[in-house]
Each structure stands twice: as C-alpha cells, then as structure tokens.
Amino acid sequence: MDFKKLIFGTLLTAAAIAQAQVASHTTTMVKPPAPGDSMAVSSASMQVTGKPVARINGTVLTDHDLLREMMHIFPYAGTHNGFPKSQEAMIRKGALQMIEFEELVYQEATRQHMTVPAARVTQAANQFRSNFQSEEQFQQYLKSEMNGSMEQFRRSVRRSLLIDAFQKSQLDAPSQVTLAETRAFYNKNPQQFMMPEQIAFQTISVMPRENANNDAKEKARKHANELWEQAKNAHSYEQFGLLAEKYSEDDFRVNMGSHKLAPRSDLPEPVLKILDGMKLGEVSQVCQFGPFYVIFRLDSKKPAGKKPFEEVRVKLQADLHKDKYDRLRGNLDKKLRANAKIEEL
Known about the structure:
Layout: H1 3-8, E1 52-56, E2 59-62, H2 63-73, H3 85-111, H4 118-130, H5 135-146, H6 150-172, H7 179-188, E3 194-195, E4 198-206, H8 214-231, H9 237-247, E5 258-263, H10 269-276, E6 287-289, E7 292-302, E8 305-306, H11 309-338, E9 342-344
Helix pairs in contact: 2-3, 3-6, 4-6, 7-11
C-alpha cells in the first residue's frame, strides 16, 4: 500500500479542464493579434480558404468566420500548431453554433430596426484600434481581416455592437436575479447548502525512502521522536507551523504544515481515527504509516450544518443569474432557428 498517498493523496484537489461555455459567450471584436500572429494556424488540420461553412437566410458564413470563433474558444491554437485532436470536433461544433447564433441575432436586430449611433461606432472602433501595439500592426490586421477596408472594419464594429445590444435587451436584463429571489431559492433548497463536518489539522512528517535500509529507518524514527519532543510543547498554530516549515518532509511544510478544512469523508480512515481522539489544539504522539512517521495537531472542527445565507449569497446569486441567462439564451436560439433557413455546408 502507498502510505504517502493514503495520508496526503485524498487531500489534493484535482484541476478540472475548463470547457468553452458557448451559452454564455458574448460577441466581441476580434482581439488584436500579437506581433507575428495571424488567423492562419500553422500546420493546423483546418486550413482557411474562404469556403462557405453555413448559410443563414442567404447570408454566407465562411471557414474564416469559423476559425476566428474556434480560436476564441481555444486561443492557444496559434502556439500549439492547431487544435487538440481529441477536442477539435467539439470546438468546431461549438464555434459553428456560435457564429450561426450571432448571425441570427444580428439579422433579428436589423429586422427590428435597432440602430447604433455613428458616434458610438467611432468610439468603439477607436477603442479597439488603440489595443494594437502599432499602426503598422493595425494595418496588417485591416489587410488580413477586413480586406484593407476601413468601411468594412466599421461595419464589423457596428455589427458587434448591434449583437451586444440585442443580447443585453433580450438576455442580460431579463436574467437578473434579485436578492429576494436568491433568498427564496436558499430557503426552498436547504439540502443544497448543508455541509458535512469539516476538519483542519497540521502535520510534521519524517518520510524516509520506502526502500530505505534498517539503519535509515531507525534514524528516521529517532528523528521523529526528537521532533515530537519539540512539537508537544507547541501551544499555537504558529509554533507548530514553524517547526513544520523547518523540519517536515511532506508537501504541506510550505504552508506551515496546514491541511485546510476538508469534509471528514475526504480523509482516510486511519487519519480520522487519530484526529477523532484528539482535542482542539492537541498534538498527537508520533504516528507510523508504513515507513513514514507523522505528528498531527488538530486545529479546528466545523460541525455539520447549513451554510449561512450571507456566506453563499454572492455565488448563489451569480449562479442563479447564469442559469437563467443560459435558459433564456437557449430559448432565444431555438426561437430564431425555428424561423430561419439554416444550411450547414
């Protein structure tokens, strides 16, 4: 058994791979490229030729539009020679859905005779232009993205502003969630805010190699006992933590040996058995796990119970807003598609 993993492995949080959330995407002008960048992704499996990829009520969207959106979803394509093979199909599908949605929104905004003042277009165009590192870089962008046409550039800015304005009116404002609505959800769904008992503790560890010889193991045992003589007289988090920083051999030494509050279900049974028999602030005897020696200090226990509303309010309100926004956006997408002629080519 891997005792090192037994003690520490279950306390580490795995990083989740973020996926592009098309539903909450807001259209923007293309980010100014870094010097030397271009829309062409070197050695990418997808090469831009200007060929149509979709037709929305007669308006053609090209692979240039598609690649731009794919790079918005996965901006590392330019430095990774394309898109990850395992994710490319998903990225392409999401990008295609997004450019179709934006075109549908633009057409609906135009049908409703929405307008953007010329001064606002100029302001946005100037703001976008100021993000470039030089006039030469902007002209390069203008040539490669807008066929060298300032008029096309302004039309692109106006289109983006119209799409944003339509989405704000149809999605942003209606999806706002009030404090009263947030509290009502909190009161109606108590189980979502229940927390199990949580425990925080510190460790000082002596961890010889698993294949260490008997002399090395005996040396480690004596060293652990010497550390315990000091640790048992540590009467505070700081005192114990300084010893951990100086002598401990586990990865938590860089944070004063601290293992932050974690649900007891996340802790290994052998560790729980030790911690459950301790009082707050108490230092354990030297505990052996295979070839390793660990000294524990119990820092705190947070009993099971419902999180206070004020503790969850900000995140809950934001989550409810996002859920409502996504539902409205999905409904809008269905409505616009139902009344449109869409051909994917």
